[in-house]
Write a structure and sequence with these properties.
mainly alpha; two-stranded antiparallel sheet; 6 helices
Length: 110
């Protein structure tokens, strides 16, 4: 949990209402001052092999707005890292249900 907060503090600073896009997150990773620290913290989170920051951003962007709030970022990482198998299954099934619902709305509008 502490690592998640450390990453969020670097990404968002002290402004809890700030949003960050995928591109801004990538730029932050290249930042001379914060980039290495952020890369090391993300590495410590132990994302799957080949998983990029862009993948992480897309996964945490539940409302598909193209940007993340600090709350979305922290809550999403906490769920990803600290949920048990049952909780992960619930999250996955809920996401699938959201996709089905969205697909049905699109089909009705066509």
């Amino acid at each position: 949990m502490k690592k998640v907060e450390e990453v969020a503090d670097i990404v968002f600073g002290q402004d809890d209402d700030q949003r960050i896009t995928r591109e801004e997150l990538q730029e932050l990773l290249c930042d001379a001052e914060q980039g290495e620290t952020l890369k090391n913290l993300i590495r410590d989170v132990d994302l799957p092999l080949g998983y990029t920051v862009e993948d992480l951003h897309s996964m945490l962007d539940g409302d598909t707005s193209g940007s993340l709030t600090k709350a979305e970022f922290v809550d999403g990482l906490d769920r990803l890292l600290f949920s048990n198998h049952f909780q992960q299954t619930c999250i996955l099934l809920s996401s699938i249900a959201d996709c089905r619902e969205h697909t049905q709305r699109v089909l009705r509008d066509v």
